[in-house]
Automatic annotation (TrEMBL):
<feature type="region of interest" description="Disordered">
    <location>
        <begin position="249"/>
        <end position="291"/>
    </location>
</feature>
<dbReference type="Pfam" id="PF13432">
    <property type="entry name" value="TPR_16"/>
</dbReference>
<dbReference type="InterPro" id="IPR011990">
    <property type="entry name" value="TPR-like_helical_dom_sf"/>
</dbReference>
<dbReference type="GO" id="GO:0006508">
    <property type="term" value="P:proteolysis"/>
</dbReference>
<dbReference type="InterPro" id="IPR019734">
    <property type="entry name" value="TPR_rpt"/>
</dbReference>
<keyword id="KW-0802">TPR repeat</keyword>
<dbReference type="InterPro" id="IPR011600">
    <property type="entry name" value="Pept_C14_caspase"/>
</dbReference>
<dbReference type="InterPro" id="IPR029030">
    <property type="entry name" value="Caspase-like_dom_sf"/>
</dbReference>
<feature type="repeat" description="TPR">
    <location>
        <begin position="308"/>
        <end position="341"/>
    </location>
</feature>
<feature type="domain" description="Peptidase C14 caspase">
    <location>
        <begin position="28"/>
        <end position="246"/>
    </location>
</feature>
<keyword id="KW-0732">Signal</keyword>
<protein>
    <submittedName>
        <fullName>Tetratricopeptide repeat protein</fullName>
    </submittedName>
</protein>
<feature type="repeat" description="TPR">
    <location>
        <begin position="376"/>
        <end position="409"/>
    </location>
</feature>
<dbReference type="GO" id="GO:0004197">
    <property type="term" value="F:cysteine-type endopeptidase activity"/>
</dbReference>
<dbReference type="Pfam" id="PF00656">
    <property type="entry name" value="Peptidase_C14"/>
</dbReference>
<feature type="signal peptide">
    <location>
        <begin position="1"/>
        <end position="23"/>
    </location>
</feature>
<dbReference type="InterPro" id="IPR052039">
    <property type="entry name" value="Caspase-related_regulators"/>
</dbReference>
Length: 455
């Protein structure tokens, strides 16, 4: 009896030890999503389709069963995730790659479908898909190893709508035996361009092909490669609780092409110079008319001239697209219907400041703060007004009060840095932190007529 028990115990130990030590023979399941065409964004994310295809092909070569999807609506994304969960076998390696827009809300990261309708912060959890919940479900379904590769640390139009947001992505709260890699640091965003492929994915693919290294080391190398190639301007975030041995590549079939990897030279320190970024031009009437969100809101307003909500929303979209005169007209109409709407007053303040009406803007911001003294967005907007009026001490106070309420506001940090510099200080720390969170912040302020150079 004792001998039989010892044999059974030995067998259980062998089985559990094999599962804990390696995952070479486990099923490998991947869901690859590339969301490039968001109607609310000004242009298609050109690199997303290419990157998603390249990642899917590389994963297939590594033995993954891959479901690649593009431009998913909320319903389609829910269905794709459901199929993904259903295919996870106990002990499997489950991987999700998402390229598109994501947003942080209440210290969680949400992946956004292309039809997300986000006007206020609560809409984020309604229309987005929480990364923490995705990883938890992968774990519940029995995945031994969970991997999330997220190339979505972009400044997106949804964030600008309610302005009271935390830039970049939040840390993932993940189950054990999980790897998570973001394309940028927590709370930071990468510059949005119109390139064919992203540097982050190029480094990721190179390291996934490398033989004889663990998946964790491959992602560490990816992070280091991006940091070196960008001179530390982009620093991916990696989180690992991996205890099981796993590699993306097979030693026999994945030769590493080190010779093809560009050599990165550390740039020599340069003198600080004041550069005036080129502000983005405002869209013309035809471009605005073709915008699907504006068109939909315009149809609602035509059907009901008293639709204050649609007026306010269309004003927000116009302001985001720098069509400030049209934005002010809509905010005027919204305020006629709801004269004590602090958010509408704040947005009209912001738009008036951008169009060169600082006194009208100041009146709007003051009234907004009388109605809602804790409205950090109005403090930020009034900081801009005071900055444009040359009232640097007042601007610093407004921005500081706004930062106390929202420490992750790149706008408030950048504005306070400019005001400090104009007051004889340096403002370097605030400006550098703002740029690390939002690489386009200087260009955004240039659109308001404010630059880092002396006025």
């Amino acid at each position: 009896m004792r001998a039989a028990f010892m044999l059974l115990l030995a067998g259980l130990v062998a089985l559990s030890g094999g599962a804990a030590c390696h995952a070479a023979d486990a099923a490998k399941i991947a869901l690859v999503i590339g969301n490039a065409k968001y109607p609310d964004n000004e242009f298609v994310l050109a690199e997303v389709a290419n990157d998603a295809q390249d990642v899917a092909e590389e994963l297939k070569r590594g033995g993954f069963v891959v479901d690649r999807q593009s431009n998913l609506t909320g319903d389609a994304m829910r269905q794709a995730l459901g199929r993904f969960y259903d295919r996870i076998e106990r002990g499997a390696v489950a991987l999700i790659f998402f390229d598109g827009f994501a947003i942080q809300s209440n210290r969680q990261t949400y992946l956004l479908p292309v039809d997300a309708q986000i006007w206020t912060e609560p809409d984020v959890s309604r229309d987005g898909f929480g990364l923490d919940a995705i990883l938890a479900e992968m774990n519940t379904r029995g995945a031994a190893i969970k991997i999330a590769l997220i190339d979505a640390s972009r400044r997106n139009p949804f964030e600008r709508r309610f302005r009271r947001y935390s830039a970049g992505l939040a840390p993932a709260i993940a189950p054990s035996n999980t790897l998570v890699l973001y394309s940028a640091a927590l709370g930071a965003v990468t510059a949005t361009g119109k390139t064919d492929r992203s540097l982050f994915v190029a480094e990721l693919l190179r390291e996934m092909r490398a033989p004889n290294i663990s998946a964790e080391q491959a992602l560490t190398n990816t992070k280091n490669g991006v940091v070196a190639a960008t001179g530390r301007e982009q620093v991916p975030w990696l989180s690992s609780s991996l205890t099981t041995e796993f590699s993306f590549a097979s030693p026999a079939t994945r030769p590493r092409d080190d010779a093809a990897k560009p050599q990165v030279q550390t740039p020599e320190p340069q003198k600080q110079v004041c550069e005036v970024p080129q502000a983005e031009p405002a869209p013309n009437a035809d471009e605005l008319a073709r915008d699907p969100v504006i068109a939909d809101l315009s149809r609602r307003i035509t059907a009901n001239a008293n639709d204050v909500t649609s007026r306010y929303k269309r004003g927000q979209v116009y302001a985001i697209k720098r069509a400030y005169t049209l934005a002010i007209q809509d905010f005027d109409a919204a305020l006629r219907g709801a004269p004590k709407d602090a958010e509408a007053l704040n947005n009209r303040c912001w738009s008036r400041a951008a169009t060169g009406d600082p006194q009208g803007a100041l009146a709007d911001c003051n009234l907004a703060l009388q109605i809602n003294p804790g409205l950090s967005d109005a403090l930020d907007s009034r900081g801009l007004v005071n900055l444009k009026l040359g009232r640097n001490a007042e601007a610093i106070k407004d921005y500081t009060d706004a930062i106390q309420r929202n420490p992750r506001s790149s706008s408030s940090l950048f504005g306070r840095g400019i005001a400090a510099r104009r007051s004889g200080g340096d403002g370097v720390t605030d400006i550098a932190q703002a740029k690390s969170m939002n690489p386009n912040i200087a260009k955004e302020f240039a659109g308001y007529g404010v630059t880092e150079c002396a006025p």
